[in-house]
# Entry
Amino acid sequence: MSSQIYNCDSCDKIYSSYMGLWKHKKSIHKKIEVINDEQEQKDEMKKHICKYCTKEFGDRTARWRHEKKYCKLNSPEITVKILIVIIQIVIILSIAIIQLLIAV
Ligand SMILES: [Zn+2]
Ligand SMILES: [Zn+2]
# Structure
C-alpha cells in the first residue's frame, strides 16, 4: 500500500499519506474556504433583488416577503394573461357594439 497517493482535490499537491494530505488541506485550504464563504456572504448581501420586479431589498427576509406577498401574484406571466383576457373582452364588446349600431 506504499504506492498509494493522495492528491488534493483543491490544488495539485500530492501526498504519500492521508495524514499529509489532511494536514495540507487543514492548513492551506481551510483559510481559502473561509475567505470564499465571506465573499459569498458579501455577494449575498448585495443581491436582495426581487426576481419579478427587480426591486432591491435590505435583507433576504424582506425580499422574500415582498415576492411572496406582491410579486408572485403579480408576476409578468399572470399580468400578460390577464391583459390578453381583457383585450379579448374589449374586442368582443366592440364587435357587439358595432353590430348593435349597424342594426340601428
Ligand atoms: Zn491543496
Ligand atoms: Zn417585486
About this structure: The first strand starts at residue 6 and ends at 7. The chain has three helices and two strands. The mean pLDDT is 82.
